[in-house]
Design brief:
Chain lengths: 288, 167
Amino acid sequence: MRFCRVRSVAEAVDELSRWGTEGRILAGGTDVMPQYLRGEQPPAALIDISGIDGLQGVSEVGGVTSIGTLVTLRRLATASLVAMRHPALAQAATAVGAWQTQTVATLGGNICSAAATADTLPALLVADAQLMLVSKSGRRRIGLEEFLEGPGATALRPTELLRAIEAEPLGERSAEGYVKVGRRSAMDLAVVGLALRLSVTPTGVVNNARIAVCGGTRPPHRVPSAEAAVVGTQLVDGRLDCTDAGAELASAAAPERAREAEYRRRVLPRLLSRLAERCVAGISGVGS
Amino acid sequence: MPGAAGEQSVSIRLIVNERRHQLDVGAGETLLSMLRERLSLLGPKEACCEGECGACTVLMDGAPVASCILAAGSTNGRTVLTVEGLAGTGELTALQQAFVSHAAVQCGYCTPGVLMVLTALLEDTPDPSEADVRRALAGTICRCTGYQQIVEAALDAAQLMIRAATS
């Protein structure tokens, strides 16, 4: 195995095109290194992109948040721009592993590892995240949900690098959050993770809802039937009735054969109610 | 292990405990293995080898990392601090002293990692709450103390450091 340190995106895509399926990108390494250390088939080359400065930033340009692929989970958990515009993402980043993990684990790595339990992915899905991919032959843009093809499987081609993530920030009269249930409160994978983004009209009618889950057998995904059940609902006394949406979430989880499936079906409606309550409390400027 | 079969090496320059080093490390070599086997820094411990237990925790550019799953090759240009670097002048830090007075060390295996993550916490959050301390400790497992003495030592050290800074 070779170790190829690259200093720029141009160098990275050169190496990727040279090694193809034999190359593996190394960012924080929190997935790649344990796999190697467990004795899984090593790649011919580790392509270390961790020193590329241009992939580190978080910025808001033209109403879109752009997050470099190397932005760490710790940065997402602590950056004020993320806390204000993408609170679900900040909460999800805090829920991954422990501080030691968050220091080096990157958002791009989380996306490309595409774990079914990846906390950050539901938070990105409710922000309608778009991925900016680059290769030697050009650039392309793909929606996160389309990118996630299966647990551990993505639409990333062997010669491509995920360069940045673009996400839609929270708008007016909107709120969002992420909640996770695992066996312990830190250092464990999600049995259920749920992200919700809600927008309401000045008179308190939900006009947009995005709901995404992780932790099952499928890759993290949105649940359109549950979203549709919330849209059009009127807040009553500052509360949102999520009974129908909760039932939709439970029934969408029904085909799963994971051993926690029954638990997921029971807990998802309650998590949704709790999260909706938190979100509604965070929305200001709504008349009663 | 350094120089595993089939691995090519890569040259790195880094600072460890205020000393500059230039080393050739294996492509799959971990920072922990480099520290222990090339630099003879035996403070960071090898236990789980998968980034779960925290016994290998060191600070990289001031932030805690699990050195057992960090590629040594990717530490080029970085600054690393291990437990050996804390009492660089020969005097224990306030945190280390508090560990002694609170009997926060039993078998001692987790202690180097715990000290490093708490050193980072006190730098980051000089007046932490008990919840802050416990959250910071989430990735460092101790099977002896039940954490209580460790938490008390950290809170006490924070107050000592605040008093020392304001007096």
